[in-house]
Amino acid sequence: MTALTLVKVERIKLFSTRSPWWCIAAAMVLTVGFVALAAGLITDTDAQEFTAPQTQGPYRFGFMIMMIMAVLAVTTEYRFGTIRATFLAVPNRTSALLAKAAVIALVAAAVGEVAGVASWGLAKAIRGSEAPLDFYTARDYRVVFGVGLYYLVAAVFAVAIGVLIRQSAGAIALVLLWPLLVENLILIIPRVGDDIQKWLPFTAGNNFLAAGTDHVGNAGDGPGDMPFGPWGSLVYFAVITAALLALALVTAKRRDA
Amino acid sequence: MIEARGLTKRYGRTLAVNDLSFTVQPGRVTGFLGPNGAGKSTTMRMILGLDRPTAGDVRIDGKRYADLKEPLRHVGALLDARWVHPNRSARAHLRWLAVSNRLPEKRVGEVLELVGLTQVAGRRAGGYSLGMSQRLGIAGALLGDPGVLLFDEPVNGLDPEGILWIRQFMHRLAAEGRTVFVSSHLLSEMALTAQDLVVIGRGRLISQTSTSAFIEAASGSTVRVRGPELGRLREVIVAGGLAADDAPASDEGPAALVVHGATTDAVGELAGRAGLVLHELAAQRGSLEQAFIQMTGGDVEYRTGTPVGVAAPAGGPVMAVPGQPAGAGILSGAAPAGKGEPR
């Protein structure tokens, strides 16, 4: 069985149910919709500082929904027993799950990319005359065109969580609470909280978008003195994700399906 | 051909399958029989590489399942008809299966036609009746035109038409030279479907024989005999070297004797030589369920307590209870009437 065959199988499986379509539509509408609202409602003064990276502010909507889609693509297979049908058809579980991760990662990346560019394009169409929405710095390009990469890695992260936990409710709760709550509330710990936060996966992933300043001098919204620069942060997040995926693959191979 | 050698599966302290060895031959339907919880499904999952055996191994045509290249071309399995995403259509479900083993996509239409689901193939599988789901599962098993087929409780919950359809289908598959391995806890169903039996109880092999030999060996031969002079009749029979039990008057008829390990010929001749009048002389064939219970004896995992008044001595002559129709009894929790306390 070639990798391409397995990718085709997972593509058929993903798109022959409705929920991924809903997830994709919701991710697009929420992400782009919020940018459009912001662009439309912003005051003329604030529009002076409405830059290309700021059009990516609501990226988290699509980002979270794509992680939920990735979790569900795995956990519904366990829930309905189709994971066993999958392992009967493809006894090499590692290949089967890697193909699934690849398909979902590509879909999430495409959604992130389209949503990112569409957000910027729509903002520019609405406020192009007043707001400095052109690309001036490397960060401007990186944030608008690179947001899909962050989606891609996060989707793989969510697939790994889905394989490890197998239950929809638990796995979704984890991928939502981890980036939204755990990595922020860690600051409550006195003295060391700040140092721990810098090394957490989603804080690092977000630094890929947040690091650096745009041309009007707005600093990114991540914590100061991150251990890596933007690309290093993305690589760091990807390495953690790869380790988690490896753990998930070993677990799936060992346990009874 | 399926060969299991020393197959063992342990879950914590429970031994689900215990040193199980058997062979399933091609060209025949082999029934895999045992009460609920005997380890049938676990064994089937180990055959298919879904569960990892604690010890032993099982091979299909000499290979482990995981080593089969494009396994759907060799082995078709229906373990659970609900292993379909409810929001996916039957056609899409079969399509991804076909693509995964590089089967031509026209096979999807062929197997749908074969099981009679062509009309509803575009509908979501979650809306199917149990019979339709079962047919979809069979379509999936047949997709790769495999030489080995495994079905786990395929007739569970089906209506008579569906049961007949599946039974005939399996006979046809075996007649085509395939290896067909069907599990069931319904002995009466297996008696009609299977030529060979692998019988297990509590994860251990109880017997592997042909179905007819199993039923014959298990049901033995019992004769019911009745006449006006029961007392003398009993003396004559015992003097003739046979064991006789009293069968008091019941729904079955007036008081009579039940003779074990004898034929009607032998009992009739004994009575004739003594000049005794007989009102009844009949061979009793125990039901298949009783045969099964006798064979699996203490190997039922969940046994019921003994109802008051029905108590029989443990290991007593179960076969002596005559006249139960060999109909569709279910063997699930109905352990032999025996020790009241759980083991």
TrEMBL record, chain B:
Key words of the record: ATP-binding, Nucleotide-binding, Transport
Domain ABC transporter: start-end pairs: 2-227
Secretion signal, residue range per the UniProt entry: none
Transmembrane segments: none
Pfam families: ABC_tran
Name assigned to this protein: ABC transporter ATP-binding protein
One term of GO molecular function: ATP binding
Annotated family: Belongs to the ABC transporter superfamily.
Keyword ATP-binding: yes
Keyword Transport carried by entry: yes
Origin organism lineage: Bacteria, Bacillati, Actinomycetota, Actinomycetes, Frankiales
SUPFAM superfamilies: P-loop containing nucleoside triphosphate hydrolases (SSF52540)
